[in-house]
Write a structure and sequence with these properties.
219 residues, alpha+beta, three-stranded antiparallel sheet, 11 strands
Length: 219
């Protein structure tokens, strides 16, 4: 019996419903760092709808992997030129074959060896992910790699110790014990809470200036 491509597609299950299968993160420190990375980029790109951020979310890249998975998903990954909407996991064959443009792993004592060897090879050779970074919330170790002729080469740090990301058009750097994003001009990308605090600080300064000239600001 001859089967058409459309009939074959109709028989295939909807893999977008596959649940993520990730373990708990190492510590509350790792959770806080992951939340910080997500919140800052979501705020910076709040007017964009052409990207997806995965946070401790499984990437399924082959049907064989569904039976015998050797690798779990990255702690943080970014896919550009895609639709921004919630997903239960990232299923490559349901996403036009797209793999992450950028991956960040948060090192821990139990994962560091795999993150720095096996996963690095996977992201380089199978995913062809353009940039791969790892950061340890415990030791503050930060390293970054970029694909050059299909091989990861280390990204050189600037004078501040920050690493430039082509995928983000931002620097990644350590400040106050956290991995943060920095604009090309050196300005730190804030969290929504930091934006609100800055706005309140400016409002308080303006109120003080008005009172100094005899004007009571309205509530």
């Amino acid at each position: 019996m001859v089967i058409t491509a459309q009939q074959l597609a109709d028989l295939m299950p909807d893999a977008t419903q596959i649940e993520s299968d990730e373990p708990e993160m190492e510590s509350s420190l790792h959770y806080a760092q992951l939340a910080l990375l997500v919140a800052c980029l979501e705020w910076l790109w709040r007017d964009r709808t052409d990207f997806f951020i995965g946070a401790n979310l499984t990437i399924y890249f082959s049907r064989q992997q569904l039976k015998h998975r050797d690798f779990r998903g990255p702690d943080f990954f970014l896919v550009k030129k895609t639709q921004k909407h919630p997903r239960k996991s990232w299923v490559v064959w349901e996403e036009d074959g797209k793999y992450p443009d950028l991956i960040i792993e948060l090192l821990s004592e139990s994962t560091a060896e795999v993150d720095q060897t096996l996963k690095k090879e996977l992201y380089q050779d199978r995913f062809r992910t353009h940039e791969y970074f790892w950061f340890s919330p415990d030791t503050l170790e930060l390293e970054g790699f970029r694909l050059v002729n299909q091989v990861y080469e280390a990204i050189a740090a600037n004078e501040a110790g920050w690493l430039w990301s082509d995928s983000l058009s931002l620097y990644l750097g350590v400040e106050d014990g956290n991995l943060r994003y920095f604009q090309p001009d050196g300005q730190r990308v804030p969290t929504p809470e930091e934006v609100a605090l800055q706005a309140q600080h400016r409002a308080d300064l303006l109120a003080d200036q008005l009172r100094a000239i005899g004007i009571e600001p309205t509530a």
